[in-house]
Amino acid sequence: MSHIAYAQTATAAIPAVIPVREILPWAIFGGLLAILAIYFIGAEQGAVSMFDGMYIHEFVHDGRHLLGFPCH
Description:
Blueprint: H1 20-42, H2 55-59, H3 61-66
């Protein structure tokens, strides 16, 4: 059996440049969605409730316990 050696050429990877102006609106949008989600999971109940009833509380109940928020 003969062994054939293949020459490998290494090329350096050039990272893509993404301007901050393109990322910033999406980062702000994602941050606002995260804050809204944390509010509904962590604080939407009782005296500070934005909506009447316990519908939202019951909808996110297991998520509250998973993230460590006490609710009973």
